[in-house]
Specification:
This protein folds into two domains: 59 residues, Helicase, Ruva Protein, domain 3 (Orthogonal Bundle); 30 residues, no CATH class. Helix content is 45%, strand content 5%. The longest helix has 17 residues. The chain is mainly alpha-helical and 121 residues long. It starts with a strand and ends in an 11-residue tail after the last helix.
Length: 121
């Protein structure tokens, strides 16, 4: 297995797909990196030479990915929570942040449904 930025990349898949195992790299960024590194997109990861791997690593170093990206995103969320912006308060309450409705869905953010006692009539 090739190792890039501390992530094991599968050998049996195309390099275009294998790079997406790194946090912060999707299909389009993967294609851009491979084009700049002059590596064939359809090549399997196991078939890459050391020279090609080093060229890919050099291209990946130009982007913010993995631990740095996670840290940056968490810092942005903490900043929003500190300044009490709308999104920050939604993060604090554990509710959807981007304007989704909550009266019938949002179970992913809100968690398991809370049981309400049955009222006598």
């Amino acid at each position: 297995m090739a190792r890039i930025k501390g992530v094991d990349i599968p050998n049996n898949k195309r390099i275009e797909i294998s790079l997406t195992y790194i946090y912060g790299i999707g299909r389009s960024l993967s294609n851009t990196i491979l084009k700049d590194a002059k590596v064939d997109i359809n090549k399997k990861t196991g078939d890459l030479s050391n020279d090609e791997l080093t060229r890919i690593r050099e291209q990946i170093d130009k982007y913010t990915i993995e631990g740095d990206l996670r840290r940056e995103i968490n810092m942005n969320i903490k900043t929003k929570m500190e300044i009490n912006s709308y999104q920050g308060t939604r993060h604090k309450k554990g509710l959807p942040v981007r304007g989704q409705r909550t009266n019938r869905n949002a179970r992913t953010r809100k968690g398991k449904g809370k049981v309400v006692a049955n009222k006598k009539k």
